[in-house]
Amino acid sequence: MFKAILIDKQDEGQRVALETLDESRLPEGDVTVRVECSTLNYKDALAITGKGPVVRSFPMVPGIDLAGTVESSTAEAYQPGDSVLLNGWGVGETHWGGLAEKARLDSRWLIPHPTAFSARQSMAIGTAGYTAMLAVIALERQGITPDRGEVLVTGANGGVGSYAIALLSRLGYWVVASTGRLEETAYLESLGAQEVIDRQTLSEPGRPLAKERWAAAIDSVGSHTLANVLAGTRYDGTVVACGLAQGMDLPGSVAPFILRGVTLSGIDSVMRSYADRVEAWQRLGELLASEQLEAIMDTIGLDEAIDKAGELLAGRVRGRVVVDMAG
């Protein structure tokens, strides 16, 4: 028996509860993991509250991240006792996820747990930090070096934004953070932001081209914000898009691409290759210090996750929420 948050469909919507389940209910997979820690991501909060079409089949255990220990395995790559990590692959959407004490998974979705981090620390990083690292790597591959100029990070108070700031700062970039919560300026500066601006300057309809300012940007917001970010990017700059908190639309112009040679690079963290995942986590281990992780994380028990999901969607959560199965 194990505890899990279970989402089930009902005529009037969905039912969400912390339940005790028999292991026989776990889905198919060649590795069974005793989950030590998971996270509460924006996507998980949408699934739990039913405010977004995240869950593709019912019943579903949410949780797109997990870290734990292999209990049993029929896969050659993993043996009982191995520490493993999972991010994405549709877990928590089409396959039971990490907000549970146990998970049964496809071994191809796993990577060995990074030795640089504890389970709690890796989940403080989670998909948010892993996505931020992929975004930074994308900027590097486009030749964006610290001497090129400012790098803008939108959605700065969120998980991806917080980690993007920390990683860029550690690498020597001058970081401008855009946020709707200016009262959190001191927090963003503690992560490494040199300047904090109000998101209102970017979130309304703007011009096809604006004054050139930043050499690059990491955007987790989308819509008008992304269009304005592109419009303000300097010649031969790069913008990495990795989120759509404001919307999926892009109400902008081709002018930044044609007249300024701007590159728009999309980041998908869900289906990335094994090699990309290992590289990203290796870089995270080299760049992130334990005190930074402590500043970003808030640890809760599994029994608190349902209520916390509503707080997250209401914008009352800063940084990362770690769900510790030991309470």
TrEMBL record:
Pfam families: ADH_N (PF08240), ADH_zinc_N (PF00107)
GO MF terms, alphabetically ordered: acryloyl-CoA reductase (NADPH) activity
SMART domains noted in UniProt: PKS_ER
SUPFAM superfamilies found in the cross-reference section: GroES-like, NAD(P)-binding Rossmann-fold domains
Regions annotated as coiled coil: none
Domain Enoyl reductase (ER): 13-323
Membrane-spanning intervals of the chain: none
Superkingdom assignment: Bacteria
Classification via InterPro entries: Acrylyl-CoA_reductase_AcuI, ADH-like_C, ADH-like_N, ER, GroES-like_sf, NAD(P)-bd_dom_sf, Zn-ADH-like_protein
UniProt cross-references to NCBIfam families, sorted A to Z: oxido_YhdH
Protein name, entry field: Putative quinone oxidoreductase, YhdH/YhfP family
Source organism: Halomonas daqiaonensis
